[in-house]
Each structure stands twice: as C-alpha cells, then as structure tokens.
From TrEMBL:
Residues making up the signal peptide according to the UniProt record: none
Keywords for the protein's UniProt record, in alphabetical order: Acyltransferase, Transferase
Name of the protein described by the UniProt record: GNAT family N-acetyltransferase
Class of this enzyme: transferase
Domain N-acetyltransferase span(s) in chain numbering: 17-181
A Pfam family: Acetyltransf_1
MF annotations from Gene Ontology: acyltransferase activity
Native species: Streptomyces mutomycini
EC number(s) recorded for this UniProt protein: 2.3.1.-
Length: 182
C-alpha cells in the first residue's frame, strides 16, 4: 500500500474541506453523512479552520487521513472521544468511556486497496492511547442499507451491538451500531 496514514495538521483546513466536499458528493452520502454538500458549502473558512485545528490537537477528537504517494488525500476518518460525564454524542450519552468513528470516506479510485483498514488501525490505536480513563470500546454507526460499509467494518473486526437509532431526517430508516471492545 502506497499511503501514509497520519493525523491531519491544523493548517490543512483547505484540504480537509476539499475531501469533505468530495465525500458529500459520493452516491452513498445521503445514507452515510448527516449533512449535505449544499450545507457544507455555506460554512465559512473560519469553521473549517477551527474544525481542522480541533481535529489536529487531538484532545477530544482526531482526524486521520490516508495520503497517496502523489499527495492526494485518499481517505479520512475522524475519532470523537465520548465520556459518560460529557456531552451526549450521537444518539445518547455515553455509558462508558468510548471513541466514536465518524466521517469515514475513501475516494472511489482508492477503494479496495486497504485504505479503510489502515485508517481504522490508526484511529483505533489512537483511541486506546487517549489520556485519562481508558476507553473501553470504539463504536460507529452505519445505515441499514449501506451494506458495503457494514461489510468493511465487519472485516476489520467490528460487530453489531444490536442498538439502533432512527436515521436523522428519515425515522423509518435505521442506523446500526457496531463496536470493537478493548
């Protein structure tokens, strides 16, 4: 695999914005992300600067990217740290100290080359190294109709927990929770 997987740097906000916009134009975006391309386009530069700086600092979140040999960002994943005493995350307050993977995306031309596996290895390793009470699990949600993503997550070692949430904007559809325990 000719990719370098690393944490995003604060000054790379333009590249972070670009890959997010590409992700939001992907055919799977309506069931994979909770915002639209049009919504993301309206956000000012300062939003992207602050978001990227926060994801680079790594106190409560960290964004990882897979950079191809020619410099293009081939994929990304963001880790959010969730603590029982913290703000409720996606769906509900955390019952245990945990990480939550969000914003998973690999450009179509780089799929099937191990990019998502490498991103997840880095994200999970970082999760286990977070300071403070040890994180007990890493979770993510996947839309019930996103079979390609669910198959990738299972291959990596995630297992369904049986928890579900209604899809934001489409309460008849479900988001399925998957996890890896420490």
């Amino acid at each position: 695999m000719d990719y370098v997987v690393r944490a995003v740097r604060a000054g790379e906000w333009r590249r972070a914005r670009e890959i997010r916009l590409v992700a939001l134009r992907d055919p799977a975006a309506p069931i994979a992300f909770l915002e639209t391309y049009e919504q993301a386009l309206t956000k000012p530069d300062v939003f992207w600067q602050e978001r990227t700086a926060g994801a680079a600092a790594g106190d409560h979140s960290r964004q990882f990217i897979a950079e191809a040999s020619e410099g293009q960002w081939a994929g990304t994943v963001t880790v959010l740290v969730e603590r029982p005493a913290g703000e409720p995350g996606f769906g509900e307050a955390a019952e245990v100290d945990q990480a939550h993977l969000v914003g998973v995306f690999v450009r179509p031309g780089h799929r099937g080359r191990g990019v998502v596996d490498a991103l997840f290895r880095e994200a999970i390793d970082w999760s286990w190294s977070v300071a403070g009470p040890p994180l007990r699990r890493v979770r993510l949600y996947v839309h019930e109709r996103n079979g390609r993503a669910a198959a990738s997550y299972r291959r990596i070692g995630f297992v369904p927990t049986g928890r579900t949430l209604p899809m934001e904007g489409d309460p008849a559809a479900l988001e399925l929770e998957f996890e890896i325990r420490r």
